[in-house]
Design a protein that fits this description.
2 domains; Jelly Rolls; Neuraminidase; 51% strand; mainly beta; 0% helix; single chain; seven-stranded antiparallel sheet
Length: 451
């Protein structure tokens, strides 16, 4: 390591086979710290070539053990930039990939239990890359610079200029909310940022061709390409107070929304996916859409009638609604299995919010999960193999926003429940079906507060 005090520059040389999965082979220049911290630097590779997966990183690490818990802001040789993390000692490394390639400056921040990164291209100010990870560290821990060659027969160098290590102190101004639209493959569990904004966005749905995502923000519905880009507003005419209960028909041609502009309470409407004047479906409100039958003929929703929230169905053309649940307490979040035989939903009838299911006529209501969490919004995958749901801690009532939550994955054929992602979220994260059509990925929204 060479240090240039005039430019606050460190040139670090490192070898190492890899810095990924369970491998931690890199050169680490560190300092022990406590509390909330921020580390920022301009990063360059002085030489061209080398392995495209070589990495220059800003690290926050529990210990110097080779399998320590950690998080880093990693710039790869090919420009890929990501927040990498290992939740606990001995676990594997995952990442949240940024939608921006080859930034010139990176920053990693630890605030409370969450770690996030910010990036800037040439001429830009640092801004959030989107996404954050819950990482609980004991004090003191290590902060520093790391270089990995991704080739144990080579030595690579990276230069970290204008290095700034500062303590994060409480600020007097109200923090900004960052909403991040993300996707996560269920095989790798490595998250990718599609879009981030300082506006509140919620509840993504996937288009039938897998090329776009739909979400709500400020009462409107937006469409965005999965490969980034800018969101485009969909014309919903008078329906300008859409909430986070919306989705697409099985043939991908019709959009269903829940909007409360007409009656100041949520009513369900349908309209063409390209936009148009909404057609009213439910006579009564509040009604919150959640599921569309695979044959395209029926909508399932949560409705409040006479002070009780229950599961109802209604023909997609409108008409009389059918009540399916009558247990004391809240029943919510109905979604159909792809074979059309079951409706999965969440219910607090057993004392804690858990996942249940029933036949589509309301018969054979049976409990699916029974654990120490409050489980909400179950969504079966299109191939019928998986069930994803949102889990709150046992002490959390309802489905509020801005909480520590976990996306969990259950094999419907039986087996262990897996953690898909840990995040700051809740209301708006996955209220509605958000599986990709091929059942390989899930879309969701995470949140963070930044000064």
């Amino acid at each position: 390591m060479e240090f240039d005090g005039e430019h606050r520059a460190y040139t670090v040389a490192g070898g190492g086979e890899n810095m990924w999965f369970t491998n931690d082979a890199f050169h680490f220049v560190w300092k022990k710290v406590s509390g909330d911290v921020t580390l920022a630097a301009d990063i360059t590779f002085p030489t061209r070539g080398g392995d495209p997966h070589r990495k220059a990183c800003l690290l926050i690490r529990q210990s110097l053990d080779s399998d320590s818990a950690y998080a880093d802001a990693a710039l790869h040789g090919d420009g890929l930039t990501s927040l990498q993390y290992r939740e606990a000692k001995g676990a594997r490394t995952y990442e949240i990939q940024s939608g921006i390639s080859a930034p010139t400056r990176l920053r990693i921040e630890k605030r409370g239990k969450y770690v996030s990164i910010s990036i800037a291209r040439a001429g830009e100010e640092l801004h959030p890359a989107g996404g954050s990870f819950r990482l609980e560290l004991n004090e003191p821990f290590y902060v520093g610079l790391g270089v990995c060659a991704h080739n144990d027969k080579a030595i690579e160098k990276a230069t970290f200029t204008n290095v700034e290590l500062t303590a994060n102190t409480p600020v007097a101004t109200k923090p900004k909310l960052i909403s991040t639209l993300e996707t996560v493959p269920i095989a790798s569990k490595d998250r990718r940022v599609v879009y981030w904004t300082t506006n509140l966005i919620e509840a993504p749905n996937w288009s039938l061709d897998g090329a776009a995502l739909f979400f709500n923000s400020k009462g409107r519905i937006y469409k965005i390409a999965v490969t980034n880009g800018e969101p485009q507003s969909i014309d919903t005419a008078f329906a300008t107070r859409c909430n986070n209960d919306h989705g697409l028909s099985p043939d991908g041609k019709t959009l269903v929304i829940s909007d409360h502009a007409e009656e100041r309470r949520s009513i369900i409407y349908t309209l063409p996916i390209t936009g148009g004047t909404p057609k009213r479906i439910t006579k009564f409100g509040p009604s919150y859409w959640h599921g569309w039958s695979p044959d395209g003929k029926t909508l399932a929703f949560c409705g409040e009638r006479n002070g009780e929230f229950d599961i109802y169905t209604i023909p997609v053309e409108g008409g009389d609604e059918t009540r399916l649940t009558a247990a004391a307490g809240l029943d919510d979040g109905p979604d159909y299995s792809p074979d059309g035989q079951w409706i999965y939903f969440n219910s607090e009838r057993s004392g804690r919010m858990q996942v249940w299911r029933m036949h589509t006529d309301g018969s054979q209501q049976e409990q699916v999960t029974s654990d120490e969490f409050n489980n909400w919004f179950p969504h079966p995958s299109p191939d019928g193999k998986w069930l994803v749901f949102l889990s709150y801690d046992k002490d959390v009532k309802g489905h509020p926003e801005n909480k520590d939550v976990t996306l969990r994955l259950m094999p419907l054929a039986g087996g262990k429940i897996e953690v898909l992602a840990k995040l700051f979220g809740g209301q708006g994260t996955i209220n509605v079906p958000s599986w990709s059509p091929d059942s390989r990925k899930l879309a969701f929204v995470s949140y963070q507060f930044v000064p």
